[in-house]
């Protein structure tokens, strides 16, 4: 298995995994990703910005993640808590694993990759958020060493359901 930067030709396979994740969230009764976000334009933009990565085995994309080094506007205001540092940070978005590969440690591999990549960019902090109903992701983040920080709100154009639980991680 390898993790590499996504290419334009990967878009259909990435979108297939995104649709699988959207369906899984829907089955769990979670409203996250249920309004057409993320869509092809979102993922295409990630690829063009070189912030989209894929985990590949034998030519098949099994998982995807977006790793950004830009400040996230949604993190400028946090409620009922605070981030543990105001230092520059990397951001993880749009992590998804193929339904056929769940519970095989692929998401853990993606997070480990993100931690190393962000550290290689000279940053010691990572931020990520998830829907308050996405209990599996919340548990996963805690298992990966992320700490809950408070509540943030996404911009309205991204999602009608804007409330998110924010987490951070310090790379030591």
What does it look like?
- The chain has 172 residues and is α+β, with helices and mostly antiparallel strands.
- It has one domain (2-170): 3-Layer(aba) Sandwich (Aminopeptidase).
- The chain is built from four helices and seven strands, in the order βααβββαβαββ.
- Strands 1-2-3-4-5-7-6 form a seven-stranded mixed sheet.
- The radius of gyration is 15 Å and the shape is globular.
- The mean pLDDT is 94.
Largest sheet: spatial strand order: 1-2-3-4-5-7-6
Summarize model confidence as the mean pLDDT.
Answer: 94
Spatial extent as radius of gyration: 15 Å
Q: Mind telling me which CATH architecture this is?
A: 3-Layer(aba) Sandwich
The profile of the biggest β sheet is: 7 strands, mixed
Protein name: GNAT family N-acetyltransferase
Keywords: Transferase
Domain N-acetyltransferase: 1-172
GO molecular function: acyltransferase activity, transferring groups other than amino-acyl groups
């Amino acid at each position: 298995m390898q993790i590499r930067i996504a290419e334009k030709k990967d878009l259909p396979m990435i979108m297939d995994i995104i649709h699988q994740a959207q369906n899984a969230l829907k089955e769990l009764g979670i409203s996250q990703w249920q309004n057409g976000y993320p869509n092809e334009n979102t993922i295409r933009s990630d690829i063009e910005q070189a912030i989209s990565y894929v985990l590949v085995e034998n030519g098949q994309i099994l998982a995807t993640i977006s790793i950004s080094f830009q400040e996230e506007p949604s993190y400028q205001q946090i409620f009922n808590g605070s981030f543990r540092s105001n230092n520059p940070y990397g951001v993880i978005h749009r992590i998804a694993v193929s339904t056929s590969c769940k519970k095989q440690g692929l998401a853990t591999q993606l997070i480990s990759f993100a931690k190393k990549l962000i550290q290689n960019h000279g940053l010691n902090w990572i931020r990520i958020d998830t829907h308050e109903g996405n209990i599996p992701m919340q548990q996963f983040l805690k298992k990966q060493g992320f700490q809950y920080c408070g509540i943030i709100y996404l911009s309205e154009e991204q999602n009608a359901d804007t409330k998110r639980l924010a987490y951070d991680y310090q790379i030591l």
